[in-house]
Amino acid sequence: MPSTSIPPPEDLDALQARLRASFPTLSVQFQSGARYLLDHPQDVPVLSMRKIAVSAGVQPATLVRLSQHLGFDGWQGLRELFVDALRGSSQPYARRARKVVRDGGTSRMLGEMLEAQHNNLDQIGAGNEKALQAAAELLSAAACVHVAGFRSCFPIAYTFHYVYRLFRSTVQLVRGDAGSLEMELRAFGPRDAVLVVSFAPYSQEVIRVASAAREAGCKVVALTDSSVAPIALAADCTLLFSVESPSFFPSITAGIATVEALVEQLLARKGKGAIRALEQAEGELHRAGAYVPANRG
């Protein structure tokens, strides 16, 4: 719980102004954390709390307490202001693309991309350990699992659907092809669960899917970039992943990794039954000629 009764700052400018105004009265440890937040705002959305703490020369718990001192429930609430500021300053995509073109051919581009992906992947484990278990419990208990992700989120949704369906037949991908979304939403039942995937800017279609799921009495698992994303606000369980990237377009790498980790949890829960189903699926694929035969020569 926040250690003060004051409301948290509403945006990054207000947060930075409060830090500067209160800096002389802060403890030495809080000053170290505040100094890093003020001097390196670009690091907060893409680095884990642990890495920021190391760079600031404080313990991770100090950043949590500083966040609470500022009126937030914890670190994630404070971090969201930096994420929102970065997201707002990086739109539209064309504006970011100009920078990529301007810097084209520079030797640092690959290194920057790899560093961003490492940071995004680090953040998955920072806040999703309990949420992954909760999501796996909801999905494994459902009569049928429906999966929806549109446009840039479709690869994440499709990966989950494809891999999970290898050992569970009652997994359906919501596609909305040829204006068929409403027909697909009619299949939602009160014993089902729906996994919805989206990051900013959030698609209208996925919000319709989430709303239809709630109306049908389904359990909803949201995989998104913010705890206050439209699909997260009414979800039963939320998994967070970062989409930050030095390129012009948000990265889906961490989203793919999150659904792979989720499927791993689901496989472990089903146990021997999942292994039998997986062996059967693999055998059918080979017998159907889906794969090029191995060269035994």
UniProtKB/TrEMBL annotation:
Example GO molecular function: DNA binding
InterPro entries: Homeodomain-like_sf (IPR009057), HTH_RpiR (IPR000281), RpiR-like (IPR047640), RpiR-like_SIS (IPR035472), SIS_dom (IPR001347), SIS_dom_sf (IPR046348), WH-like_DNA-bd_sf (IPR036388)
Taxonomic placement: Bacteria, Pseudomonadati, Pseudomonadota, Betaproteobacteria, Burkholderiales
Keyword Cell inner membrane attributed: no
SIS domain ranges (all copies): 135-272
Classification via CDD domains: SIS_RpiR
Keywords: DNA-binding, Glycolysis, Transcription, Transcription regulation
Domain of life: Bacteria
DNA-binding found in the keyword field: yes
The protein's name in its UniProt record: MurR/RpiR family transcriptional regulator
Domain HTH rpiR-type residues, every copy: 13-89
GO biological process: glycolytic process
